Amino acid sequence: MQRSLQGARRSLGARILGLPRRRPYHASPLVMSTEKIIPSLGEGVIDSLHDKSISSVKKLEMVQTYFAQVPPTPDQNDLYALSILLEEQLASRDMPSALVMVELMNTHKIPAGKRTVDLFSRMYARHLADNPTKISDGLAWYVDHRHALVPTIPVADMYVELVSRGHVSVAVSLWEVCMEDPRLTCFVPHLAAVDILVRELTRYEQLETVLALARSKYQDQLWDDAFFATSVMEGFSDRREHHEVLKVHEKLTARNIVVDSRRYQVLVRKAQVYMEHRTGTSTLAPW
């Protein structure tokens, strides 16, 4: 009884001090074997990964050493610890180390947590912005490392990050690459999430860029997206090119595309009123 009480006190003291709990002796029976036993990160390295006094570079070396052992057997605690380390590298803007870390995780089929993937996606978008001519290769790298990240390229998150930071041309280039590169088309949403791109461009008043998309070689595919069509009309309306607004409306009508949007209807009505006053010919439909 006294021995059990002492054990409980030691366990409680360990929890208060933040120390790892001792494993009960019966949980890990001693097995005589000539094979080298490789402990999980949770039995040693994991404490160092949480140590703020150790640099992320040193932590990466520790993880590389761990994975150099065969066969590594990461458990659930290890997965959490590796995600924490990757987040730390990203937070400190240490992209080279983060890329090496993803390489390791991908090789050993270790997925990062959702929060970590979200952070990596935003930071990777900035990484692409540093060298816009390499966007295609950069996205192909992301696809090749999907075991550690996500099955599809989170282009929507990348658009948000790029446009909000003023990298409008890079965001558009990223979208164009996703539409053109056959290596990527299976790993991006329909039309490469153009609705999200246009939404961000509209939010930051980049309507001229939206109009440029309407003149791109992909325009015939884009008209099927209601948000895109409405944003194009918004751009023409801001420029007082109301005849162009009506052209878009006529184009969609000819394609039997019905846009169920109050804003769309307001833009069409506004253009019709303007053209009636200008030409004296009514084109107004019942309101």
How would you portray this structure in words?
The structure is a single chain. This protein is mainly alpha-helical. It has 3 domains: 70 residues, no CATH class; 84 residues, no CATH class; 74 residues. The chain is 62% helix and 0% strand. The longest helix has 18 residues. The protein is elongated, with a radius of gyration of 28 Å. The N terminus is likely disordered.
What is the ordering of alpha helices and beta strands?
A: HHHHHHHHHHHHHHH
Report the major sheet: none
- Ends apart, CA distance between termini: 86 Å
Mean pLDDT: 83
Oligomeric assembly: single chain
Helix content: 55-70%
In terms of DSSP E residues, the strand content is: under 5%
Structural class: mainly alpha
Q: How many distinct helices?
A: 15
How much is the radius of gyration in Å?
A: 28 Å
Coarse shape: elongated
Total number of distinct structural domains = 3
Give start-end ranges of low-pLDDT stretches: 1-39
Counting DSSP E segments of at least 2 residues, the number of strands comes to 0
